[in-house]
Amino acid sequence: MQLTDFEKSMLDGAQGDAKARAMDLLLRYGEALGAERLVETRNVAGAFNASTPSVRHMVGDGDEEGFDRVFSGLNLDSDDVVDIPRMTVPTCQLITGIDMENHETQGVDPALAELQGKSERYLGKRGVNMMCTCTPYQVGNVPLQGEHCAWMESSAVIYCNSVLGARTNVEGKESTGAAGLTGRIPYWGLHMPENRNANRLIRLDVEVDDMSEWGVLGYFTGFEVEEDQPAFDGLTHQPDLMKLKHFGAAAASSGGVELYHMPGITPEAPTLEAAFAGAALPAPIIYGAKERKRTWERLQNATDRKLDFVMLGCPHNSIEQMSRVAELLEGRRIHPDTALWVHTPRAIRQVADRSGYTEVIERAGGVVMSDTCPSISRKLPKGVRVIATDSAKQAHYLPAITKVQGWFGSVEQCVESAVAGEWLGVVR
Ligand code: F3S
């Protein structure tokens, strides 16, 4: 790979051991990908916290050296422990496994929660912004069109590329650690304009309106196009942040979609023709009532209707979604045999607290969680066998990860079912 003089000086150690290790990692990574150079980034979203059970042994007593050991080993792929300095460019922590206010409800080992607190302080001292959410774009990290980013988390990546028009591949713990320290990432894949055009076409023959419909369309899309880049024709309703968030998360779950083009929404696709950069349109994949019903059925992984747990907020809820859940629960009570956890970024939780939404949800018997989700933490209320969720992504992963039965439906169906203690949803 071609390096600039500045990059060579980092590699040679002129700016310290940590940046030299980071450059070494980026060089190996870029060469494996066939990249010819690096590109500057000023926006990194990764995973740096050191409080998962699997890395606990590396931290030791929880002193700075222990956390340096974790960062060196897991974020820089270095066998030697190096002092980790402050990040060079704005860098944020994505979702973690522990809600620092609700870890007892989660059933997390208190020692692990204490370690999480220490890990957060260690990272904060190094300039890592502790957003602790899979939706950094909801809480202030909103890159501009064309900006080169280094983001992890498939639902965040697809939103970043397709809605914001910024540019990122799906990065990992190692490359985001190295990018935070150097402000560089390999220039390949979706950083290159020529790789960003649509190559599949999906034509909608049915209305796609509410949030669950967008999740179902996303789930269909991922199965159909796998890792390709679809463009859409026939949208009847203008989606909003919440719907696009659910759509993208689902498309990146059933498939590996990292970029889609919705004319008039994706900044690079003012028209369908622009999405394909003037190339002939491929034969369309049709999404009609039959496909919608089949996909909706595919998301039902349960037979028992007695409901133990309802999970809302995957990807993490916006304030509008928190408001809606509170509205649905006002003056009501969740069934005593059913738990309800609602997930939202901590920054949005504060707004929910001040707006009275948290109080309404808690009075009804629900819990508002931040910083985490059950698929990441692998923590569910004790004895859960049957869950329901308004997220196609969570319906895809949670039964697979935790071996529970899972229902999928709209937020209204989920809340009504939580109150009834049984699944009341119907396939559309
Ligand atoms: Fe976020 Fe967890 Fe869903 S990371 S996208 S809430 S599976």
TrEMBL record:
<keyword id="KW-0456">Lyase</keyword>
<dbReference type="GO" id="GO:0016829">
    <property type="term" value="F:lyase activity"/>
</dbReference>
<dbReference type="InterPro" id="IPR015931">
    <property type="entry name" value="Acnase/IPM_dHydase_lsu_aba_1/3"/>
</dbReference>
<keyword id="KW-0408">Iron</keyword>
<dbReference type="InterPro" id="IPR036008">
    <property type="entry name" value="Aconitase_4Fe-4S_dom"/>
</dbReference>
<protein>
    <submittedName>
        <fullName>DUF521 domain-containing protein</fullName>
    </submittedName>
</protein>
<dbReference type="InterPro" id="IPR007506">
    <property type="entry name" value="PMDh-L-like_dom"/>
</dbReference>
<feature type="domain" description="Phosphomevalonate dehydratase large subunit-like">
    <location>
        <begin position="1"/>
        <end position="416"/>
    </location>
</feature>
<dbReference type="Pfam" id="PF04412">
    <property type="entry name" value="AcnX"/>
</dbReference>
